[in-house]
Write a structure and sequence with these properties.
The structure is a homodimer of 395-residue chains.
Chain A (H helix, E strand, L loop, with lengths): L13 H8 L6 E2 L12 H14 L1 H4 L9 H11 L12 E4 L2 H12 L5 E6 L3 H9 L3 E8 L2 E2 L1 H11 L3 E4 L13 H13 L3 E5 L24 E6 L11 E4 L2 H12 L7 H12 L3 H26 L14 E5 L6 H10 L2 E2 L1 E2 L13 E5 L5 H21 L1
Parallel strand pairs in A: 1-11, 3-4, 3-6, 6-7, 7-8
Antiparallel strand pairs in A: 2-9, 4-5, 8-9, 10-13, 12-13
Chain lengths: 395, 395
């Protein structure tokens, strides 16, 4: 049986494979990016869903528009985007079956095999996989504790003229780092100067524990070259698979055509649940609630790390998002640590798959603090810390 | 802004564009392939959904497995497939966000630009669009009132060695025709002889009004080269976007990897609704009910056509599915008929976009009988018949 060239060497997401481990409830998992089940607005969703199926079943169970369920697109334009300083029209908006689909549709609409795509290093490995399947040539800009640096970005843009730049400016995955406002403005300028499409993937931005919101790259966009991906996976529910994107009308149109041939349209009921959740005014309060929960979990994990990890394991205190990025000394292999940690029923994600440069990031790993209760966070970090010390002693 | 080569000349689905017309409730629509809203099992879905969100919200609102929601995959293996003479294991099964996604994933997993894909002529235009975006080279085998003919198929397979053959053997879209058992067996043999992947798209098969079920192509498959797409869009609800595919384990694995980068996983709640619908034993009775409804609608439409259409408009009495395929005399343009019909508030789909051969099918059109109540079917067919006679008189 023939396998397409684009699939050669694509072995599947390390994180998706990790999900299989999660079936064992004894495993303390800092892998994945799962929201806490305590943060799902279960009762509200149940109530909304029942009303929707009582009042709008004829519409919701029928085929829908590829562009999306109209009340969701309007709620996005009327409430979500203005909250981020953004304004637009219906033709700027496309509903997605999860924001990963946005990346897939952007690749379909824009990328020819061999085109250069610029990514942060490290970056979200699901996105890297999508770009690999699109047969893009990846180049990277390093991410630092204060986000990406404008001079490094400009250098790589000048050198490689990427067709698009994929970034997660706020509470980046996997690093948790935030790119500052001045750099964001410069990204928008570079998008105009080099006619480069910028994908601003923004699933974590509302999960802020402390400090001031940073303006979106899109809010500095004067050339209509920035497209925003907005996910409800971290704020309402990932299992519903509801996201939206916002950007250039011509591009949205091409993505819509690509979506016709991908899943025809996103499920109506799911879009309607999110639309109602927004329209009934639950969003702000819910985000305040879950940000508080995650801030507490992050704090718990950091305190445990400060206590149980050797001081030569480097990490930053997160100000939002879901992740803590850890760096072991040069020469360490997080892969080995991972295999031994799983034996002790603790899981995380080794950092190498988040990297594009061959061999980079072997000594890094990502911890997620949102999926486990506090006592298991402390226990898991203790086991990890003990293991790291043991492995050091064996060296 | 760059647009990818694969999107050049792809203008979007004519049917999807038609959906915009459906916003006007005065339009009698024989376009689309919408199930009747009277056929949605609304109360059962509402009841199931409420129980699922009461009992399983923690699981259903969380991220799920790319492979699909386990109870749905099991229900498919235990109830749906055996009902079609098919048996397999979990690794043969992948859940899809609508069966269109199956085509997209198959293209990603198998097709390189320039590869030959064989399709029936006419064929489902959504599939044709997906193959165009995959930059496949399309070749065709004609479909007749008794389905495709084995000798014609073999000739084109021998000549072009297609990588895959896409077909809808039962109540084909757009023709409504059924390919016979002997030809199906021959298709499976050709798949083995020429190492050709066969996509057996089967969304309409259970909507049979009369006559005996024909065995699936897959049931004759000895080389594991046939992959089945099973949709619940026509039997339960299209808005839920739940489908599954069944086939070769290696191929399913590649499709799963492609799906990781497409929408990560299909929405859990939607999969769970369908799984419960099957597991609670509603399926057979519901299919019996809707087949009866559609048989009545089809009969109503055929009787109106017999009465109001000139005898030189050709069509077959459907034995299942959702469509009646019409052929006007040579030289007619169904496109013109369409534009004038819309002025009289009747819509259908002109046949040309279902064709691959340039210029073919201009004198054909597709009528759907499942979306309108009987009095509107009669009224719409009368208006169409009157219009056809008027246009004839103007020639």
């Amino acid at each position: 049986m023939q396998i397409a060239e684009r699939m050669q060497g694509v072995s599947g997401s390390a994180i998706r494979e990790l999900f299989k481990l999660l079936g064992d409830p004894a495993i303390i998992s800092f892998g994945g990016g799962n929201p806490s089940k305590a943060c799902f607005p279960k009762e509200v969703i149940r109530e909304i869903t029942d009303e929707l199926l009582r009042d709008k079943a004829d519409i919701l169970l029928q085929y829908g528009a590829t562009e999306g369920y109209m009340p969701l697109r309007r709620a996005y334009l009327d409430y979500i985007l203005p909250g981020n300083g953004l304004h637009g029209e219906l033709d700027n908006v496309l509903a997605l079956t999860g924001s990963m689909q946005g990346l897939d549709l952007l690749c379909k609409a824009v990328i020819n095999p061999g085109d250069v795509v610029l990514v942060e290093e490290p970056s979200f490995l699901g996105a890297l996989q999508t770009f690999h399947v699109a047969q893009a040539k990846l180049v990277t800009v390093p991410i630092h504790t204060d986000g990406i640096h404008a001079d490094e970005l400009e250098e790589v843009v000048k050198k490689y003229h990427p067709v698009m730049f994929y970034c997660i400016p706020t509470f980046q995955n996997p690093s948790g780092y935030v790119t500052g406002a001045a750099t964001r403005k410069r990204i928008a300028e570079l998008a105009a100067e080099y006619n480069m499409l910028v994908i601003e993937d923004d699933p974590y931005a509302s999960l802020r524990f402390t400090g001031e919101k940073v303006p979106t790259i899109k809010s500095f966009d004067t050339s209509d070259n920035v497209i925003v991906l907005t996910s409800f996976s971290k704020t309402i529910s990932p299992g519903l698979r509801v996201a939206l994107c916002f950007g250039n009308k011509d591009l949205i149109r091409k993505m819509t055509i690509a979506k016709q041939g991908s899943d025809t349209h996103s499920p109506n009921l799911n879009q309607a649940i999110v639309a109602e959740f927004i329209n009934r005014g639950y969003m702000d309060k819910h985000i305040e609630f879950i940000s508080g929960v995650y801030a507490k979990s992050a704090n718990c994990m950091i305190e445990a790390m400060d206590k149980y990890f050797p001081e030569w394991v480097r990490y930053e205190r997160p100000v939002g998002g879901l992740f803590i990025w850890c760096t072991l000394p040069e020469g360490w292999e997080a892969d080995k640590l991972f295999r031994r940690a799983v034996e002790r029923k603790v899981a995380f994600v080794p950092g190498e798959p988040f990297h594009t440069t061959p061999g980079a990031g072997k000594n890094t790993f990502r911890l997620n603090f949102s999926a486990e209760p506090e006592e298991r966070i402390v226990e898991g970090i203790k086991r990890l810390g003990d293991l790291i010390r043991e492995m050091k002693a064996e060296m």
